[in-house]
Amino acid sequence: MTIHQFEREYKKCLQRRFAKEQWILNLQYPMKSSHEYLEYLENCTCHKEGYVTYQSCDLIEKRLFENLVNLVGTEIEIRTRQRLFILRDKVDCEMNTHFTYITSGSIAEGLDLPGSDLDQMFLLNGVEIVHENNAHYHFFCTTLVMEIDTQLPGFVRLRLIHIGETKSQSIINILDCIKTSEERLYLSTQLFISNITGVNFSTHQVKIHGPCISQSFEAVDFAYCLQIRCWPNVAQHWIYRHRQQWPCSAVIDDIIQSGCLVVAVGPKHVAENDFLWRLSFSIAEKKLLHSFNYTQLLCYGLLKLTLKRIINKNPIVKDLLCSYFIKTSLFWLSEELSIETFRISNLFSCYNLCLEKLMMWVKDCYCPNYFIPEHNMFLGKIDLTNNKPLLELLQRIKDVGIANLNDIFLHADEFISIYPRLSDKWHFKLDFLLFKIAKITPPKHENNCYRTLNLIESLIKSETSKFIIGTCNYFKATVNQCLVQCLSIPRPFMSSQEIYYLFKSQHRCLHDGLKCDAVSGWLLYAFVLL
Question: Which residues form the Mab-21-like HhH/H2TH-like domain (predicted)?
């Protein structure tokens, strides 16, 4: 082969690879919140200078893209935020045995937009939910059977069949939430929420909306859930239905292994709904968002900004649409189109396709749940009496095009961000985010701290991002401060050798704890040793 022939074949190979670039990345990095993908981004030439440039001669499109990236973030920023919350969840889960801790909401998804929400989900341990045709249970777990309501897709009843021996594994006693119906014992959503608020919150400051509980002085929503370890039969069709390249089989398998949740809220359009629990696919949706490529994430960010700053500014249609409907439209679109459609050059075309899908749903007053299409999520919210103004507004946004979308960035709180980026500005934002979420729930036993420290040590060895490694070291120092408070104090019956090893352990923990907060660290040092 001559040099000329080699160059020609090499160029053809590069062209083929570029044409299938997103497909290849999906196969190589199915979960893009992984530390392997973050390492790939940090080593990738096109990401080192900040973000991929928008190749277009249209100045309006280019300006809109730059403003969007300034607000949503570069891909490295988004993946680092996603990774931060994954580590945060792992650390808190090791520190506590009463519940599994999962963060959700826009920030945990990687989008730190103005006004973005942060939801904290607590999965109660010691409670197991099984299918009706597989009613096997563990001796130590309280077991509930999931009864599917064929008339209400997406909702289930939870019938008690076994009382577990280890009641202390849950933060509430499930038996206090049981009601009788037709000589059977069912879990009540009202009693469940009432018991949760009574145990964990000051009742005069509590606000309940849907399955979430919030306090007036906090901007965080808390959702207490029960986990179904197996994939529900009502959503089996999602696994096998026809789709293009997204999501890939590795992501689907991961989602199935995670199961789903039930949350304490019934359908709005049903009066007697105390025994009805909604199936929640929050874990699956978070994994799907973490598998999005950068174009999909930017499209999602632009849709959320459109909702907040254009649609919800109209008092007639305000609150008819929500972020969840927008997310669902992008899920359906991503499944129906080739993954190669979602390129930076096609960003605004993808945005328009999502608008068209939303318009079709609003016109039909039917929004199919991504996992259970038979579940119409518009029920009780959008119908023939209020859909026309919303449909007209969506049509107007689509007809005007992107020319006026730059207006959504011209807000006083982001005025600076429409100018060229400061190269290190995002590092400061990440630091602020870390300190905002870094509080760890104190454990009740020192063994939890030792397990967490082992986990953190393994994470430090596997991670490559400097920020993530620094985050792990911060968590390590915080856990050491918790550990020294769990260690026993010297007792009269202890031998001198036991006292020596105890003081040695305390000294090591106190020394390591200084690395997260010198002030509280030295105060703790003085309190313990003096």
Answer: 312-383
Lowest mean per-residue pLDDT among 14-23, 184-193, 282-291: 14-23
Consecutive H or E run containing 145: strand 142-148
What is the spatial distance between Cα 401 and Cα 357, in angstroms, rounded to a whole number? 16
The one-letter code for the residue type at 37 is Y
d(CA 156, CA 25): 38
Burial class (CB in 10 A: 0-12, 13-18, 19+), 316: exposed
487-521 CB burial, b ≥16 within 10 A, e <16: eeeeeeeeeeeeeeebeeebeebbebbbebbeeeb
Q: Is the peptide bond before 442 cis (omega within 30 degrees of 0)?
A: no
pLDDT at residue 282, as a whole number: 93
Global pTM reads: 0.87
Lowest-confidence region among 55-64, 144-153, 315-324? 55-64
The answer for residues whose C-beta is within 8 angstroms of residue 75's C-beta and 6 or more apart is 41, 47, 51, 52, 294, 297
The C-alpha atoms of residue 363 and residue 382 are separated, in whole angstroms, by 10
Q: Do residues 324 and 331 lie in contact, with contact meaning Cβ atoms separated by under 8 Å? A: no
Nearest Cα neighbor of 295 from 358, 339, 329 is 339
Q: Which two tokens stand for residue 437?
A: 């979420």
Q: At what angle do helices 75-95 and 425-437 cross, to 10 degrees?
A: 20
SS3 content of the chain, % helix, strand, coil (to 5): 55, 15, 30
Q: Which residues pair with 142 in a beta bridge?
A: 127
Distance CA 362, CA 344 (A): 28
- CB-count burial class (<10 Å; 0-12, 13-18, 19+) for 446: middle
Q: Note the pLDDT tens digit of each residue in 349-400.
A: 999 999 999 999 999 999 999 999 999 999 888 999 899 999 999 999 998 8
Say if residue 280 is exposed, middle or buried (CB neighbours under 10 Å; 0-12, 13-18, 19+): buried
Count of CA atoms in the C-beta half-sphere (13 A) of 513: 24
Nearest to 192 by CA among 231, 233, 160: 160
Distance CA 512, CA 88 (A): 19
Could you give the 3-state DSSP secondary structure of residue 295?
helix
Contact present, 506 and 528 (Cβ < 8 Å):
yes
Q: What is the pLDDT of residue 203?
A: 56
